[in-house]
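Protocol step 4 of 6: structure prediction from sequence.
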Amino acid sequence: MSDVQDFIRETVTEHPVVLFMKGTAQFPQCGFSGKAIQVLRELGVKKLVTVNVLEDAEVRNGIKEYSNWPTIPQLYVKGEFIGGSDIMSEMHESGELKTVLQEAGALDD
C-alpha cells in the first residue's frame, strides 16, 4: 500500500469526521465543497477535519481510488465513506446524516 493510501486510511480512522474537499472550511474552492461545509455547519459538527486535495495531487487522486468514488468532496464518518455533497444533502434533508453524525458522537450536544 502506498504512503498516500496509508495517509488516507489513517486520517479517516483517527478522526470521527473527515471531509476531503477542494479548499478549506474557511475558504472552499468549489461550490460542492462549499455546500458540504454548509451542511456540516448546519448540523453543528464538532472536531471536523478537512483535507484540501488541491494541495497534493497524489492525495486528490488517491482519495478517488481509496473510496472508488470519482468526485470530491468526500465525507467519512468513523472511517466509513458516506458520499459527496449531493448524497450529504439528501441525507441531511431526510435526517439520516444527523443520525449518523450523532451516533459517531460528532455533534454538539
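Step 5 (inspection) to follow. The mean pLDDT is 95.
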